[in-house]
């Protein structure tokens, strides 16, 4: 009887330890996401200040961006938020294969976003639209500032997409190896939070650089 009680106590202690670890991991992720928000908030404020000063110049520069590609990339990222959410819900229900399938889909959508961004930047660079280019040097300070912020902010966002793809790809491996399970999905949940942040940041970038003409 005493051995049974001891074993039961060990199970409870292990479960409590796992719960504390999961809670600590989520708190850590939220703190990390908060620092990311601070970083982009500072850049958004800088954009707002310069747009107020150079309103007409920002309007002219905004006409050079490709709204169609920006809208397509917005759809891609919104869809990827859905697929990663489905992946998390699937593993929480114990549906491992479904979780893997939707997580792989999320990774592929991330790659598609980067491919579109590559072609968009290539098109703009081929037209001489890049920081310190001869074409931009002939333009006003406001237009130069617009494209400086455009490349800096969308480029930084792109790096976050790359980091997200790497993390999600590693989680696919962990799912296959049963390192992420129905009883311990916290790694996937935290990665999902990060990916949602990446998508939310793009939702703000899209109107600033593509819609507000």
Describe the sheet with the most strands.
none
Chain oligomer state: single chain
Low-confidence stretches: 2-12
* End-to-end CA span: 76 Å
Describe this structure in words.
By secondary structure, the chain is an all-alpha fold. It has one domain: Four Helix Bundle (Hemerythrin (Met), subunit A) (Up-down Bundle). It contains 7 helices and no strands. Helix 1 runs parallel beside helix 7, helix 2 crosses helix 6 and helix 6 packs antiparallel against helix 7. The longest helix is centred in the N-terminal third of the chain and has 52 residues. The N terminus is likely disordered.
Summarize the entry for a quick read:
With 213 residues, this protein is mainly alpha-helical. The protein has helices at residues 2-53, 55-62, 67-92, 96-126, 134-137, 141-176, 186-211.
List strands and helices in order, with pairings:
Layout: H1 2-53, H2 55-62, H3 67-92, H4 96-126, H5 134-137, H6 141-176, H7 186-211
List keywords for this structure.
213 residues, mainly alpha, 86% helix, 0% strand
